[in-house]
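Obj: model holo form, ligand = pyridoxal-5'-phosphate.
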Amino acid sequence: MNNPYSSYRSLFPILSNYVHLASCSQGALAQPVSRAIEEYHNSLLEFGSNWDQSIMKVEATREKFAELIGAEIDEIAILTSVSDVISTIATCLPYEKNKNNIILTDIDFPTVGHIWLAQKQDRAKISIIRSSNGIIHLEQYEKEVKENTLLTCIPHVSYYNGYMQNLKEIANIVHKKGSMLLVDAYQSAGHIPINVKEMNIDILTTGTRKYMLGIPGVAFLYIKKELAEQLKPRLSGWFGQASETKFDVFNSVFAPGSRRFETGTPSFISIYAAYQAINLLLKIGIHNIHSYLKELAELTREFGLQKGLQIIGPQSSECNSGMTSFYIGNASKIEGILREKKIIVSARKDVIRMAPHFYNTKDDLDYAITELSNLIHGNPDSFSF
Ligand SMILES: Cc1ncc(COP(=O)(O)O)c(C=O)c1O
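Output (holo structure tokens):
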């Protein structure tokens, strides 16, 4: 199996020294993204202030992200982390006595639990849907989302085992019960096609440092326009104001659409990086990336099973995102040893995650899995436990 995107590999300097399989954590840095970071840095060195150019880049990046997920430009706000985005939403929901239940899942990234648990101090009631073997069946949403559910909060893809949920089906179920749907797409945006209109998603968030190939400091909020304007942010600031009140300390008028959720000056340098990163992804095409990663995921499973490794997570390719998790007791130690062998993977709790992107090849996976298997099962040339 050849990599159809092999000509892009030279854009990623890290690939000449390492096998990089950690897009679920930090994607590889591409030269155009690196140059964008330098451009911001150099503009400060050379011109002292680059405010106008930076604001233009914010708007251009908003537009690019809207294109990536099929949203309107005014439905996108730019913040700094997914945690900030979810907190912004959590603190401004209209909790009512009979509609105050928030549903999340045990496959959400832990920050999601931390944010909603913090809201219990106020009026929110929290229920957590529990997975079996890392999977949540649609019937569980049917059963657990009720008339008193204000918001159902789910990950598109599990950070732990790569399980991909069917957003369109879940949106149908939760809407029937009168709940809104918030999707954490941090493990899917950049390699799995998302169309917020077709999928009927109310609120979506993601950041740029994983499959979106940027750096930390940028997270996006998509919120349906009609919904955004019903909400009054409690985390606020001058970037979230309509233009007439931006410099008026006595009054506050929220900006139309999603911009009202912005607060202060964003991380311009990360936005410069995000713009180029999304540009590159759009150039290759998310549908193309997704098909290729599905093939790589199949190979990863095959290689892993041949080598006697234990795979955690989805067994069918339909709900496999591209990332594969191998159960390894001492995962963070193994991650460190693999790095010494020039293989970058990502450990979480008791698993090693292998998360390829379009720049990876079959040989990358073959090599990484062979080395991992040698470490686990012992090999005279390898470190053995
Ligand atoms: C699915 C998911 N959501 C949220 C986060 C946390 O994002 P942030 O650090 O931007 O709040 C992560 C992880 O790094 C993640 O994998």
